[in-house]
Amino acid sequence: MNLMKTLTLKNLKLNRKRTIVTIIGIILATALLSALVTLVSSFQYSLIEYQKQKDGDFHVKFSGVKMSELSEFKNNRNIESTFETIGMGFAKLDGCKNEGKPYAYVMATDETGFERGCFNLIEGRMAKNGDEIVIPRHLKTNGRIDIKVGDEITLDVGKRYDSNTESVIGENSAYEYEAETLTDTVTKRYKVVGIMERPGYKMEDYSAAGYTFVTYSDELAAIDNGSKSEAGEADTTLTVYSRYTQKALRNKDAVTADIIGVDEKLFEKANDSSVEMTAEESDRFIKEMENAKYDIYMNGYLISYECIFPIDGLFKPLFTVAAVVALIIILTSVYCIKNSFNISITEKIRQYGMLSSVGATRRQIKSSVKTEAAMLGVVGIPVGTMSGILAALILVKVVNALSAGWLNFALSFHTSLPALILAVILSIATIYFSATGSARRAARVTPLEAIRNTKEIKIKSAKLKTPAIIGRIWGIGGVISYKNIKRNNKKYRTTVTSIVICSVTFIVISYFMSLAFGMVEMSYASTDYNIGINMSYKKDIDIEKLTKLVSGIEGVDDYLVGAGYDFDVDNPEYTKEYGEYCRQLYGESGDTSQMFLITVLDDKSYDKYASDAGIKNATAGAILVNKCTFDVYDENSSKYVKKEMELYKYKAGDTIKCGYNVYDDAPSDDNAVEGDTESSTEDNNNGVRKTVDVTIAGVTDKVPIGYNGYTTLLFMNQKGFESLWADGKSGNELKPGYAHYSAYVVAENADDYQDTFEKETEGNPEYSQISFYVSNLDKEMRDEKSLFTLLGVFAYGLIVVIALIGITNIINTLSTGMELRSREFATLRSIGMTDKQFAGMVRLESVFISVKALVIGVPLGVLINYLLCFIMNRMGGAIIYKPPYKAIILCIVVVIMLIYAIMKLSMTKLRHNNIIETIKNENL
What is the C-alpha separation between 279 and 370, in angstroms, rounded? Predict the structure, then answer.
């Protein structure tokens, strides 16, 4: 046995090139697996950190907790840790421009709360005592109150009181205007020491009447460090933010129900979207929650990100993708490494025959192959593991460096020991399965078969007939190449199969990842602008003039200004799918009319939109956006799923009859023009109904900025819209008051843009008849961009991983094959084959391999994608299949270029080899 090991080691040393190629294959396979598990671990950790930063580091929020009850949370074995906040009260803000948010809501916490709450500091520092305070950024961007770090402010803090209900109003309740007043006010002076981003949704609800100001609580700090007991402050009401243990997190509903004192089974059922509650159960649940000990909010996203088992939420599809990718890496790596062993064994058949003839058993020959695999694995696995970790680290660092300044958070690099151990085990399994088949094959060889070495070549006369066209185009080299492929078909089948697997894998994974990314985009994408402007007006607005105002401010990357008009269409031409959806939504006897929003754009924006949508001659009519995403109930999964569907059957050139009403204060019917159709007489409520014919210039699924989420959209320019009326008097009937104007801007610096816009419009007599309402959505846009960047790094990182394993597999298979055939090539050259004939032979082989591999691989990849889409739809998905054209084209180009480059380099290298020495070399 030691002799066989020595012989194996000697062969590895003599065949250094093949040994190095095989080790590289093992290193890459292991590196890809370790990089994959590290990326998954880093992605999960980054997503958790992102959610903590966005909404806070807690699982469940309990409101209305008395100070004396705090120990129940601190001592609860299901709760890992807590932090607390105290609501100090509300104070009226002078000069606030947001009428629905006139207060400052003062909240107090300690160091733990500042650290684990969603208080993301932009400038300055956190408060360190009760005389210091931190204010939110949107106090300026939304309320237009400019307070700077270092300023001192005086607040009269009290309770909001509703005179209608004679009760105190809660912290997240909307402003009641005349019905509410502040009572029990206490004057307090604070120094502003920091500015933070707007706190998360459940710390400050979007409907809340106050901007969150945060100060320091000495009481909470004293309780946390143990210098004070909570028993002495029994009347103080707290909000407790708790983190559950991992065990409790898996049973979060039961744990939470026990804390708030409601029925566990009913609570679990209410929080399970796959289970439908009866009307009686719903009523009982509502009553139980009304009588619950505390109000709660569950940080659902963070819970789903941290609660790995059972796998749920966003991680379910992502872990599924990771598992599929890992399986593909293993399969392709097995094939790649197996090729090396098979080619090696084919060339060492004579050696194995000689060993068998002198007494080596099958077991010893098998052991020799497996020992070779173990020796290669001992070198390749540790290097591969470290390389994978290093590659993941570099990727994270590069992304953070490139995204610094425009992302809300940095990607986190995180390794998981169990995950790395799993990667090593999978790598060992990969090498084992790669070597096992080759070992069995080597052991089955008899001495006579091995010495003859004819088993690989099976000749039939019919197969060796060469088409005449090959000889005419490629010459004698092409004829020899064709005959060689036919007589040695097994080796070429191995090469073609290897390329087919890589091509199919790349096409399938590219489609799979684009599909997953599209599904996430449908679920989360909504904010594609950071400044929104709505307008109310007393007279007509010149849209070109308004566009000049909006786009003329420095720092505008993109913009859109539109005037929207609502029309109704009777019995529109629904697609079958959308028509069925409308019938389910509104009922069989429901209204068959559909509201259409016609948005008029300025000429420049309209031309740009038409160009981006690929529509020519768009000025002749309207552009119809004919796709939208809906929440559709799936009976198979008993859940609502996102589904994108086409809306109408309209195509370019079709006409839609759009209806509108002319009211009493509009011009009389004498202004009606030829072509207008009255479908009803004067009506006190609805006025006189008229219609216009709108011609469709083109249909698209591209939506301009600001209009995500709208169902039925038509876009026109001003001239086209006015031409709907023969005499151009649409303004007489539809304005003023009929249109709703809005503008959407992507600005480099949203705060600066908002300041400049308000300076140019406030007090300017040119805009005295227009009221502007500016919304600064910079944080929301950056949050979404951060999430998509995180998903993009993971998705495209996996595609790069698959591309690398595929390219390496092709390089390994082709280069090893060419190297091992060097004796054959040397023999051909020794009997007179010229360099031109030799080049023709190699080129023809490249053509045969490329064409055959792509003809099989591309259709197979498309078919698998279609089956994947079909299976997912059967399981409750709602996916419209689209062939991955970009991935297919990229795959074809890369395969052809790669095969050509490898063959050419190998051919150049072989030309320089000494013919006699190559023929004599037995180690090839």
Answer: 66
pLDDT category of residue 718 using cuts at 50, 70 and 90? confident
pLDDT digits (tens, 9 = 90+) for 325-357: 777 777 767 766 766 666 666 666 667 777 777
Instruction: Give the DSSP letter of residue 294.
Output: S
Query: What is the rounded CA–CA span in Å between residue 384 and residue 30?
Result: 5
Pairing assessment for the beta strands 688-700 and 622-625 based on DSSP bridges? parallel
Could you read off the pLDDT of 637-654 as tens digits, one per residue?
Answer: 566 666 778 888 898 889
CA angle 540, 553, 406 (to 5 degrees): 125
- In what helix (H) or strand (E) does residue 811 lie, and over which residues does it extend? helix 778-820
- Cα–Cα distance between 127 and 236 in angstroms, integer? 21
Q: What is the pLDDT of residue 915?
A: 76
Tokens 């950056």 found at: 782
pLDDT at 670: 39
- Cβ-in-10-Å burial (0-12, 13-18, 19+) of 763 comes to exposed
143, two tokens:
């309320």
Among candidates 280, 274, 241, which has minimal Cα distance to 70?
A: 241
Paired strand residues for 742: 534, 562
Q: Which residues make Cβ contacts (< 8 Å) with residue 754, sequence separation at least 6? A: 141, 531, 774, 776
Which residue is it, tokens 């807690």? Answer: 58
Provide the pLDDT for residue 880: 64
Averaged pLDDT of the chain: 79
CA distance 189 to 131: 7
Q: pTM of the full predicted structure? A: 0.68
Q: Name the DSSP letter for residue 574.
A: B
The separation between the first and the last C-alpha atoms of the chain, rounded to the nearest angstrom, is: 25
Residues 238-273 pLDDT 10s: 999 999 998 898 888 999 999 999 998 899 888 876
pLDDT-based confidence at residue 516 (cuts at 50, 70, 90) = low
* pLDDT single digits (tens) 211-226: 999 999 988 888 766 6
- Round to whole Å and give the CA distance between 300 and 852: 51
CA distance 44 to 319: 10
Helix pair angle (362-403, 2-14), 10° resolution:
50
CA 598 distance to own-chain centroid: 31
Question: Of 14, 168, 40, whose CA–CA distance to 795 is shortest?
Answer: 40
Angle of CA points 286, 168, 83, to nearest 5°: 75
CA distances from 476 to 15, 488, 586, 849, 852 (A): 32, 18, 75, 19, 22
Dump the DSSP string for 474-529.
HHHHHHHHHHHHHHTHHHHHHHHHHHHHHHHHHHHHHHHHHHHHHHHHHHH-----
- CB-count burial class (<10 Å; 0-12, 13-18, 19+) for 705: middle
Distance CA 259, CA 59 (A): 14
